[in-house]
């Protein structure tokens, strides 16, 4: 959706502050007060739930351009632990800033609604993947999802995925052990679907990866045709 100059100015307020953070920095712990959110300017982050046995389930890998910490904005406390997977830059802002968006900018508020629904469907896909597909399919789906999302902000990106996640991070995302992740990466490479390099993965056969994983890119075609028209004086 093409934004007006006024809408862009509103969104710039969310990015008016910048903070450099290192790998492993916790932006918020689970059950901490949820008094703010972040725009992820650079680097990768993760939201995760702690399990009773001390392990964690990564519920979302955050990429540059994402607004991080939004679930806590709807509740009285942080529902997830948000931490940096790499070093990066974040722009913190209080959730009260969104009051202006929802009150004065109907199209932006509707766009937030659309993106939340896309996020919900994407999460439903991953729940189905973890619960009903084999280990190889889970890893393939994650690689495709990261690639497709990165292309939203970098259309020139081709088939090479820079992957700063450890095998433990990947395992915590798709419900596998690090050893099992390594085996599945080798299996995908042996099948000619990917090529592994230092800190990167090359996707050799994206249709093949989609075929074995059932992956559908929900981010490629959100429907904004029904949203309000911009005001004439925008």
TrEMBL record:
It holds the Pfam family cNMP_binding. InterPro entries: cNMP-bd_dom, HTH_CRP. This is Crp/Fnr family transcriptional regulator. It comes from Sphingomonas quercus. Transmembrane segments: none annotated. The lineage of its organism: Bacteria, Pseudomonadati, Pseudomonadota, Alphaproteobacteria, Sphingomonadales. Residues 133-207 form the HTH crp-type domain.
């Amino acid at each position: 959706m093409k934004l007006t100059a006024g809408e862009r100015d509103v969104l710039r307020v969310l990015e008016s502050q910048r903070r450099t953070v290192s790998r492993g920095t916790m932006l918020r712990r689970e059950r901490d007060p949820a008094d703010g959110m972040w725009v992820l300017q650079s680097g990768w982050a993760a939201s995760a739930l702690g399990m009773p046995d001390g392990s964690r389930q990564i519920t979302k890998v955050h990429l540059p351009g994402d607004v991080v910490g939004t679930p806590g904005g709807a509740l009285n406390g942080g529902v997830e632990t948000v931490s940096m997977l790499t070093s990066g830059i974040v722009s913190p802002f209080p959730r009260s800033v969104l009051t202006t968006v929802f009150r004065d900018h109907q199209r932006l508020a509707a766009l937030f609604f659309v993106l939340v629904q896309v996020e919900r469907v994407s999460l439903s896909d991953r729940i189905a993947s973890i619960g009903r597909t084999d280990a190889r399919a889970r890893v393939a789906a994650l690689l495709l999802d990261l690639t497709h999302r990165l292309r939203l902000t970098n259309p020139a990106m081709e088939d090479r995925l820079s992957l700063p996640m450890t095998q433990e991070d990947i395992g915590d995302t798709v419900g596998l052990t690090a050893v099992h992740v390594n085996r599945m990466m080798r299996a995908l490479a042996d099948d000619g679907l990917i090529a592994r390099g230092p800190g990167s993965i090359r996707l050799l056969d994206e249709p093949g990866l989609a075929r074995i994983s059932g992956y559908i890119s929900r981010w490629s075609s959100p429907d904004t045709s029904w949203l309000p028209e911009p005001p004439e004086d925008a």
